[in-house]
Amino acid sequence: MLALLALPALFQAASSGPKFLDVTAAMGLAIGSDNACWVDIDNDGWTDLIAGGYVWRNDHGKRFERREEVGSVVAADFDNDGFVDLFSFSRMKLYHNVGGKKFEEVPLPPLPPTVTRGACWADFDGDGFVDLFIGGYEDWDRDITYPSMVLMNQKGKGFKLSWTQSTYRARGVTACDFNRSGRASVYSSNYRLQPNNLYSLLGDKWADRAGELNVIATSPGFDGGHSIGACWGDFDNCGEFDLFAGNFAHRDDRGDQPKSRFLRNMGAKAGYKFEDLGTCGVFYQESYASPAAGDVCNSGRLDLFFTTVYGIASFKTPNFPVLYRNGGKFKFLDGTPGSGLEKLTPTYQAAFADFENNGSLGLATAGKLFANRGATGNWIEVRLKGDGVKVNRSAIGAQVRLKLGKETLSRQVEAGTGEGNQNDLKLHFGLGSYGGHVNLEVTWPNGKKQVLHHIHTKGIVDIVYPQ
Fold first, then answer.
1. How many CB atoms within 10 Å of residue 454?
2. Which residues of the chain have pLDDT under 70?
3. Distance CA 384, CA 382 (A)
4. pTM
5. Helix, strand, coil percentages, rounded to 5, for the chain
6. For the chain, what is the radius of gyration of the CA atoms?
7. CA-CA distances (angstroms) from residue 446 to 182, 203, 383?
8. Residue 24 burial (CB < 10 Å; 0-12/13-18/19+)?
9. How far is the CA of 311 from the CAs of 3, 42, 321, 335, 431, in angstroms?
10. Residue 425: partners with Cβ closer than 8 Å, 6 or more residues away
11. Per-residue pLDDT tens for 360-417?
């Protein structure tokens, strides 16, 4: 870990609250409310958007131009040629990025029939190429549980189906090296009151460690919840990645079904087990859906945006997406009033990105694009690039830590969050009122560490895996 900087811990909110502005029409967008994926498709330094089934090219933060139709996707450079590729989980198709100019379908191996609502990329075997985890869902009418599966990357030449399971009905899947092992694990959010899974590749076998590590995300009397999506994030600035598990929760004759909850990573001394902290201020709504984590005010703390499935839930109760502000020590407050995100329509779409390169996180949700006009604190953003040999070019799985005072801010490069969404690969750190230099510690997916000293804030830093 980096040496302690001689700085006060300045994490007070940088403004009275975030101010989001609907710029959908002004940006020329028509994105629908399907899943959103942020990624720079042509390496021009501006994060593009895949939403509503189409690729939308970002023209310097001023307009978006519609391109190919690809469905709902997660993005990573599977062949390490320097351009991000797309896996469409809605179509079960892989699209190769040809020089940032067009996408061409690449054959996949024969796969079992499945219905999926999300996928994620990660390098599970440490060979420098990203692999693919696909969550299998259900056909409720025919009582079919479709298989989840893992496709292992064959050095960028294709994929091999290496594992399937048809016991649990997955919705969102998201990956993280939560225990600093050098290998990412996958958290699967399962529906129908089934226990959630935490899959780790141990040797050559996949093992579910959710029960062992206390991340099932349920309540007494229930095996599991109606989980739809989860997100990883260092919510308490301790340097470890926690989980927020989002649960749809009916009321039934056994009492309230399991609510959404924060699962705190207790670190190495506790064997990287998680403490179930409960709701931490996330108030009850029946039909919560897909969460996304990001520091919307540049305060230094990760906030939470959480969508809903129904506009009107049971008992004629209105449900709306909520922006939760992080008050520190796992205390979350409703920051929706006055934010510009009031009374949004039901949606599974939620993904953050600094699409204007101005140090503030914008949000794609509910078929709209919102620019962030309320993040006035200081900031720094980090773009990572692997060498394509030891580390995948997209640097999926890399982690960056920044220490201020007694707190350590942590971010990871991830390709899949919530239910079928993807945040920007560019990592965003809010710094509150601190404006001095910072040190950055990068942990690459293969475990190699790299430290950069005295980095200027209020800018974007490009870091390449060292030769």
1. 9
2. 1-16, 252-255
3. 6
4. 0.96
5. 0, 45, 55
6. 20
7. 5, 16, 17
8. middle
9. 49, 37, 9, 19, 35
10. 38, 39, 40, 75, 84, 383, 384, 394, 395, 396, 413, 415
11. 999 999 999 999 998 889 999 999 999 999 999 999 999 999 999 899 999 999 999 9
Secondary structure element (H or E) that encloses residue 210, with its range: helix 210-213
Closest CA to 342 of 15, 13, 21, 16: 21
Please give the pLDDT value at position 282. Answer: 98
Instruction: Give the pLDDT score at 18.
Output: 84
Residue corresponding to tokens 């999506």:
229
Q: Which two tokens stand for residue 18?
A: 């975030």
CB 257 within 8 A of CB 226: yes
223: Cβ–Cβ under 8 A, 6 or more apart, which residues? Answer: 193, 194, 195, 216
Task: Tell me the one-letter amino acid at 245.
Answer: A
CA–CA distance, 190 with 168 (Å, rounded to integer): 6
Q: What are phi and psi of 10, to 5 degrees?
A: -105, 90
CB atoms within 10 A of CB 8: 12
The CA-CA-CA angle for residues 414, 417, 422, to 5°, reads 70
Q: Which amino acid is at 135?
A: G
Residues 390, 446: Cα–Cα separation, whole Å:
7
Q: How many residues does the chain have?
A: 467
